[in-house]
Input
Amino acid sequence: MLEETVTITAFEVTDTKFEALGEINRFTHLLWPDNYAGYGTFELQAPVTEENQERLQEGNVLWAGGNNAAIIEIINSETDTKGQKNYVIKGRTLESLILSRIIWGTYSTSNKFVSTIMYDLVKQNCVNPTDTNRKIPYLTCGVDLNLGGKISHQKTGGYVYDDILDLATEFELGFDVQFLPNEKELRFVVSQGIDRTNLTPSEDSPPPVLLSTDLEDILASEYYLNTQDERNLAWVQGEDEGSKRKEVVAGSNTNVKGFARRELYVDARDVQTSVYNEDGTTTELTEAEYLATLLSRGNAKLAEYPRTETFEATIRISGGQYVYGEDYSKGDKIIIQDLDLGLQVIGRITEVADHWGESHETDLTFGYSSPTLLKKLSRNQAG
Output
């Protein structure tokens, strides 16, 4: 049995009840994720006891302190070689709740901050929908900090979660559904990590963070690259027919050429100039607003075909030059050097996974599925 260094509390959270059931006092293994954008999947292994049987029920919420919590979705029991019956409990963090709601009708807006659009989508479909049956109990929204720059956006149908995740990925934002037991509240919050990659900071900029195998900050690492599905330029066609169809070209560099050019066609005829609102009124987009909406759709589609490049590291959580949670946190951009691989990566911390078993380890994953900045070090530089 592991020596517990974390306290897990089970809660019953239903349409009419929000109360603590008690602590999970005995467990042998816990994998606890905390993602920058979107849900993570947890796993808990614990012996079958009368207390655990009562608290480890489908739909209950597990809380390990902080603002992060998860819902029990899979329950499995098995018997080990010593005859002890054990639970293997799995589920997802609270961001998965947003998966239960679709975009009802058409959402359309022009020249709004990305974070505002994300909040709008959650408010209209999960927090304060016209049909009160669609409301997710206890869910509220945090303060909008106007993050990600201004864009135009139109979406008909589909899942709220998928749309806000696409926006977060494209503009490097994070979002959480925070668990606030004292307030009996679930709070949707959009965030942006801090850039800690400037090695010559000014007085107003944050100090840099550089983790390196040479300094023994990194205990183990894994690098992965896949360019098979990458697309970097999109031809987007909207409403009308034939030569009258409205169109734009999307991409960070629309003049990319030769072997580097990877094209994508986007049929966006569902994006319309006349938008029918939920209250029965109609909004007419100007030509500029419509083309900006097409451009946003093209960039969103390109984000679905990335250059997949990831770097995962197990870091030293004590005794190193930096302390996670003090010098840098989830969502921050930092510099990571693996001199054995000859790599220097500027990556955003997109997942923090804590493992409790015989010991406590923390794994950090950098970048979304596709961090965009990678610099190869020469062997001379690597020493």
